[in-house]
Write a structure and sequence with these properties.
Length: about 70
């Protein structure tokens, strides 16, 4: 997450404000994305990769499902 905070801060805002912005966006995404995908966000930011791609694919299937 530190890399993302630094990238946002490079736009001309303080690192503290950048961290708040990144945290707000990540929390929003975690609430809106399907659970299998949302649960991967922290792992990706910590450099752990995507984990179980099957779970991610199932979650994406729900996102694109037509009613």
């Amino acid at each position: 997450m530190d890399d993302l905070v630094k990238q946002v801060a490079s736009l001309g805002i303080s690192e503290d404000l950048a961290r708040q912005a990144v945290t707000t966006v990540l929390n929003f995404l975690k609430q809106k994305l399907p659970a299998p995908i949302a649960s991967q966000i922290d792992g990706v930011l910590e450099g752990g990769g995507l984990g179980n791609l099957g779970d991610v694919a199932k979650g994406l299937g729900g996102v694109f499902k037509r009613s």
